[in-house]
Amino acid sequence: MRGLLARLRRALNPGRILRITPVGRIYLVLTIGIGVGALNTGNNLLYLVLGLLLGTIVVSGILSERVIWDLEVRRLMPDGVFADEPFPLRYEVRRKRGQAFALSIKESGSIASPGAWAPVVVGGQPVVVRTTATAPRRGPWALQAIEVATSFPFGIFEKIRTLRVSDTLLVYPRRGFACDPDGVDRTPPRGDSGSSRHRDGTADLADLRELAVGEDARRIHWGKTATTGKLIGVEREREERRQVTLSVDAGLSGEELDRACEDAAGQTALLLARGYDVGLDVGRRHLRPGHGAPHERRILSALALVGFGDER
Amino acid sequence: MRGLVSRPPGLLSRDLAALSAFGAVALSGVLPLPVLIIFPIVFVLSLLGVRPLAGRRTVSVIVLLVIGVGLFAAVALSTLDLVIAAVSFATLVTSHRMLAEPTPQASRQVLLSGLLLVSGGAALTGEALFALLLTTFFLTASWSLAWLVLARDEAVLAGGERQAVSRQLVVGSLTTLLLGVGFFVVFPRLSWNLANRRGSPGLGGVTGMSDTVKLGGGGDIKTSVRVAFRAELTPNPGVDELRAYWVGRHFDSFDGSEWTSSQRPLTPAGTVVLHRASRRSLGQLSQDIELTPAYGSRTLVAIDTPTFFARGRGVSVAGTQPMPLVHVPGDQVFGANEANTTTYMATSDGAAGVDQTEPSPAASGLPAGLDPRVAPLADELARGATTPLAIARQLEQELKRRYDYTLDLPGDVADPLADFLFVRRAGHCEDFATALSLMLRLKGIPSRLTTGFFGGERAGARYVVRAGDAHAWAEAYVDGAWVRLDATPDQGRAASGGRWAALVAQSWEQLEDWWRSRVVDYSFQDQLSFVRSLARPPAIAQTQSSTLSLPDGSAPRAVLVATGLAMLGVGVWLASRRRQASHPAADFLAEIERRLEARGLDVRSQPLEELSHQLSLAQHPLSQPLAQACRRYLEARFAGRPLTPAERSTLLAGLETPRR
Question: Does B288 touch chain A if contact means CB atoms closer than 8 Å?
C-alpha cells in the first residue's frame, strides 16, 4: 500500500519543469496564428501545417521525456575545495538503456556553477562531465539536488528534471598568506624528518597482518589476500618528526572565526612544508600531530567544520 | 566547394528547409519575379558559404525594411495582394538571414521565417507537390533544429554518437509526420470563413476559356499536359482516344483582332435545356464532368452537340455545395459561382442538325478594317462550289490544305488575320477558325467561332482532357442548323506534348486527384463519415464462395498488427540479449546498496567503504553491520571465499534492523 502511494505521489508530482525557450515562444505564436488562419479560412493545407506543428510539439515532449527519464546522475566530489576558489565539479551520468541527448547538468542549490554539458549519453556507458563551481565561504555545504535539463530534440522547450542527490561538500577555509605561529623553531629539519615524501604509512614495510574491521581498504595487500584467502593489510614504519599543535578559539563567531580558521589553515600548510608534524586543538576536537596530505586534509576538514556544530 | 564540405551538419539542412519553404510558395506562381530570382541566388551563395551580409547587419536591415515598406505600400494601393506581399517579405527575410553570419540564432530565424513561407504556400496553392515540399521542410527543419541544440559549446560528436542522434531524429521526424496526419484528420473542420481565398490553379494549366478570343497570342497552352477536366461517359465509347469536340463558348462578333459574344446571360437555374434530342439520334450521350482547378474558368463544356446541363456542384474549402447554372443564349452555359472544382452532368446528341438556334445579326457581320485581299481569296478557295454547305466544306478543306499549323507566332501584330493568310501562311487553331468564319460570312453564310477542346484519352473508367487539348473551330449556319467546320490541320488539334510526358502527367494527375479529394477538399462531412466508419466497421461480405474472404481494410489491418507484434517480439529479444550474468558478490553489493538507500543513506555519490568509514566516525548504528558486510563482500569478490545463503541473509538482516 505504501509503495502504491509512493508511486502515485511520484506520478502526480513527476518532478518535471517545462520551460519555453525564446525560439519556442515564437514557434507557439506562429502555431496559434496558423491555427487561427486555418479556422478562419477552412484551408485544409493550413490544417495540415497546423497538424505538423502540433505533432512537433507532442514529439518534442515525448522525446525530451525519454531523454531525461531513467537517468542517474551522481556527483564525483572533489578532494579539496577552498572557499572563493573555482573548483571542478564532475558528474557521472548514466542510464541503463537507450540514449540521452543534449543534457545540461547543474546544481539546484546555492553553489554557483554554469552547468556541465553532455551532448550524448549512451545506455550502459557512463559519461563523466564537468563544470566549474565556486563556494563563497568555508563550511559544510549541503548539496541537495541536481537539475538535469534538455532542450532536445528541437530546442522549442526545455524540460528540467530535478534529481534528489544529497551530498555534503566540505569547503576548506580560504587560502591566503600565513605568519609563523609563536614558539615555532625556524631551523631546518634534521635528516629525512622534514621530507614531504616520507608520509605516514609510506615508509618501509613493517608487518603484514589481517585487516581489521573498519580499516581502510587501501591498505589491502591484494597479492597476499588472493594467496591466503583472507584480507591482509600492510603496516609500515613511521619516523620521528618535530611537532606543533595549532589552536583555534571555538568561542569566536562569524567573520572573526572564519579569519582564525583561515590563519590556522595557512599556518598548517606552511609548517607541513617545513617538515613539522602539525596538530590542531579546536573546541572539543583534538587532532594529534601528524604530517602528509591526508593529515593536512583532516586538519582542513576540522577547520571547515568549526562553528557548524560538527567539531567532533 | 570548400565551404560546402566544411559546413556544420545543421546548416545544410537549414538551407534545404529554406529551399523547400520557398518552393512551397513559388509553386503558387504568384510570387513577384524579383523575389523568384533573388532566392535561388541566395541559396547557392549560402550553399557555397558566401555570406556578404555578415558584419553588415544595420545597413542590410534598413534596406530590408525599406523593401518591406514598399511592398506593403503596394498592398495599401491595392496593386499587390496582402498574402503575396507577406510571403514576398518573408522570402526576403529568409534570404537576409541566410546570407548573414551563420549563428544558431540566425539559423533559427531562417527556419521560423521558412515556416511563415510554408504557411503562405498553404494559403496560395493546392498542388500535390506542396505535400512533398511541406514534408521536406519539416524533416530538414527538424534535423537542423536538433543539430542546433546539440552543437552547443561547439561540442564535436563521435561517429557512433552521430548515428545515435540520427536514429533518434529519424524516429522523431516520422512520428511527427504521423501525428501531423492524425491531427489533420481529427481536428474539427468548423471554419469561421471570414476571409476565405480561392485556391490558385498553381503552375501550368488554365485553359484560356475567357470572355474573348484575341488573335495574335502564342500557343503555349497547347504544350500543357495538365488535366483540365475529367468525364465519365454513358454509354462508354470503349475507345482509348475519344477524338471528340467538346464545346465551350461561341463568339459571333469580330472586330478585326478580337472575338466577343453579343449574347447576354439569363437567370441562374438548376438545369439548362439547350435543345431537344434529334429524331435521327439513336440516343443521348450522358457525361459526368469534373472541371479541375487547372481549368480556370466557369464555362461548362460538353461533347458536341450539348443538349442538357444539370446537377451542378461546386467543391471548395467550405465543402461541396450546389452550383446554379447560367444559360447564355447561343448554347453557352457556365457555373454561377467560383469553385476549385466544379462537377455537373451534361447530355449531348451526336447527330447533325441538332443546334437550330437562329444566328444573331452579329454572326453575319464583318470587321470594318478587313483586309481587301481576303474576299478574293475566299472566292478563289470556294471556286466551283454552289450550295452553302458545299462552299463551307470546300473552304474548310482548302484552308487545311494550303496553310500550315504552327505555334511559333510573333505575338501582337496590327492585322493578325492578314498576317496569317498572306505573310506567314501558318497559324494555330484560332487563326484557322477566324479565317474560315470570315470567309463564310464573305460568301453570305452566317458563322461563329467556337472554343472548347478536341480529344479525350481514357484513364480508367473516365476520359481526361488536358489543357493542351484546348481548341477553336468555326460553325456555319447552313440549312437551318449549325454545322461544325474545322479548318485546322490534324496535327494541331490535340495537345502537342510528348507521349512520355503525357504518361508521367497522367500518373501525377492521379496523385493530384487523390490529394484534392482526400486532403484539399477534406471536410466536416468526411470527418463524420470517418467517425461513423470507426463506430460501425464494414460488415464481412457475405459471399457464396466457400473460400474465406476478408472484409475491406482487414488485410492492411492484419499486416499492421502482424508488424506490431513482430516489432514487439524483436524488442523483447533484444532486451533479453542485453541481460548479462553478474557475479554473486555483485548482487550482494547491489542488495546492500538498495537497503542502505531504503534507510535514507546516500550510496551513489561515494564508495561504500567511504560511507562505512563516515558511519563509523559518526558512531552510526549501521556502521558495524555495514563494515562486516563490506568486508565479506571484498572477501567473496576478491579472496575466493563465496558467501553462503545463510551468511548472506544474516548480513543483510543486520542492515535491516540496526543494533541499538
Answer: no
CB nearest A117 (choices: B155, B157, B623): B155
Backbone angles phi, psi at B17, to 5 degrees: -65, -45
Distance (Å, whole) CA B168 – CA A98: 10
pLDDT band for B110, please (50, 70, 90 cuts): very high
Q: Identify the band that residue B348 occupies on the pLDDT scale cut at 50, 70 and 90.
A: confident
CB contact under 8 A, A54 and B180: yes
**Chain A residues closer than 8 Å to B575 by CB:** 97
Q: Which residue of A has its CA nearest to B159?
A: A120
Beta carbons of B108 and A122 less than 8 Å apart = no
The residue ranges of every structural domain in chain B are 2-156, 213-496, 584-656
CATH of A13-172, one of 3.20.20.70, 3.40.50.300, 3.90.1150.10, 2.60.40.10: 2.60.40.10
- What number is the average pLDDT over the span B79-90? 86
User: How far apart are the C-alpha atoms of A124 and B559, rounded to whole Å?
Assistant: 35
Task: Give CA angle at B397 (B394, B400), nearest 5°.
Answer: 145
Using a CB-CB cut-off of 8 Å, the residues of chain A touching B616 are: 214
Looking at beta carbons, which residues of chain B come within 8 Å of A38? Answer: 187
Contact B168 A153 (CB under 8 A): yes
C-alpha–C-alpha distance, residues B657 and B503, integer Å: 83
Q: What is the per-residue pLDDT across A111-167, written as a single tens digit (0 to 9) for each?
A: 777 889 998 888 888 899 999 988 888 888 888 889 999 998 899 999 999 888 888
- The answer on pLDDT for A9 being more than 70 is no
Give the whole-angstrom CA distance, residue B263 versus residue B250: 9
Q: Between A and B, how many CB-CB pairs are < 8 A?
A: 217
Q: Which residues in chain B are closer than 8 Å to A47, comparing Cβ atoms?
A: 184, 187, 189, 522
Closest CA to B136 of B118, B109, B119, B120: B118
| The pLDDT of residue B577 | 57
User: Is the CB of residue B624 less than 8 Å from the CB of residue B657?
Assistant: no
Q: Which of residues 382-401 of B touch A (CB under 8 A)?
A: none
pLDDT 10s digits, B232-272: 888 888 888 888 899 888 888 888 888 888 777 777 888 88
Check CB contact under 8 Å for A44 and B520: yes
| pLDDT confidence of residue B280 | 54
- Domains of chain A, by residue range, sit at 13-172, 174-199+238-312, 204-237
Indicate whether B548 pLDDT > 90. Answer: no
The C-alpha cell that represents A176 in the structure block: 591566503
Task: Please determine, for residue A199, whether its predicted confidence score (pLDDT) is greater than 50.
Answer: no
Mean pLDDT of B439-457: 90
Cβ neighbours of residue B626 closer than 8 Å, sequence gap 6 or more = B592, B596, B608, B611, B612, B615, B655
With a cut of 50, say whether residue A3 has pLDDT above it.
Answer: yes
**Residues in B touching A2 (Cβ below 8 Å):** none
